[in-house]
Amino acid sequence: xxxxxxxxxxxxxxxxxxxxxxxxxxxxxxxxxxxxxxxxxxxxxxxxxxxxxxxxxxxxxxxxxxxxxxxxxxxxxxxxxxxxxxxxxxxxxxxxxxxxxxxxxxxxxxxxxxxxxxxxxxxxxxxxxxxxxxxxxxxxxxxxxxxxxxxxxxxxxxxxxxxxxxxxxxxxxxxxxxxxxxxxxxxxxxxxxxxxxxxxxxxxxxxxxxxxxxxxxxxxxxxxxxxxxxxxxxxxxxxxxxxxxxxxxxxxxxxxxxxxxxxxxxxxxxxxxxxxxxxxxxxxxxxxxxxxxxxxxxxxxxxxxxxxxxxxxxxxxxxxxxxxxxxxxxxxxxxxxxxxxxxxxxxxxxxxxxxxxxxxxxxxxxxxxxxxxxxxxxxxxxxxxxxxxxxxxxxxxxxxxxxxxxxxxxxxxxxxxxxxxxxxxxxxxxxxxxxxxxxxx
Length: 441
Hints:
The chain is an all-alpha fold. It is 79% helix and 1% strand. The protein contains 20 helices and two strands. The chain has a two-stranded antiparallel sheet with strand order 1-2. A hairpin with a 5-residue loop joins strand 1 and strand 2 (126-127). Helix 5 runs parallel beside helix 15. The radius of gyration is 20 Å and the shape is globular.
């Protein structure tokens, strides 16, 4: 079964999917006349003014972004970047940047549609995301496609957003501080369970505090290391760009195999990290206090910029400038080794604690995504069952080998993108019209 899933995984994360994700982002970027890139500074202005929010919703626009970032800034930024560079060479970082630049348009469109077509229940809770803009935007006859997305996302969440994250935390705390995986699993279960009692408001409040603090701390240490290694930055950047277009045969393969490895791993890990096109982030943005879908879209697109252009770049540059990118290590071990090469104890502490906190907030963010998908399928009466299953999965993930679970969830994670990308292309005229009207006013 594992071998079969590996074959399926190589197909769903293969050339067709990567072209579809990049192609959709490029298509939206052109249709919007490069709006996300032109209005980047405006987006940061809206983020600052949106700390309290305006209009209807459940959480502030700022906390909506922090909730979506809590689900994206995680193992992908530390372990994922290292994996991409180890497998695809330094050039993979360049293709991660390309993914982010077009992914900003994708994330913008997702949030615009999520707010435009969101629903509110009798208790005043707002729900939105791909399943709702497929049903309400494309019409009832497309509702089955939204249901497929909800099934894929709710199941994938237990792997990508839960057990895999818990396993990563348990592994790094065990190797760095000797804490047993069971102790980590129990502690995570209690912490997550306490936060889930308060629903999206508690999740967003925790994310609104933890994500900025940890992200800024991680970025600062990375920048300090790069300052000490400033003399290596020009040659490292040159290596990144030349490796991105390396036409040599890799490992005895076909001519251009090296550039394909860089593209494949760079795009795949970039999408895994920022989730642009997968359809998860708009579920959080749909709950924001906002009076305009476009205003929230401007804030949402910053998630891709912050996640990949800032956080992933720091990890990647530290790894490349350290010279350890081809030392045989991969994943979090490679990132940790790169940071420790500059500051042995501080580097180890920052990467270990950073990964633990990032993974913890990812579990919180994905719990909300999964619950909303579960609600779409079964209604609100079974939400308590979902939360119970969610916390039970944490200690199981922390203490078990998850190769099979990782394969299943990673495959479903890619399949989530299929109905979402189709909806984004079909509803692109709506996004363009709303954007044009907003900026004309």
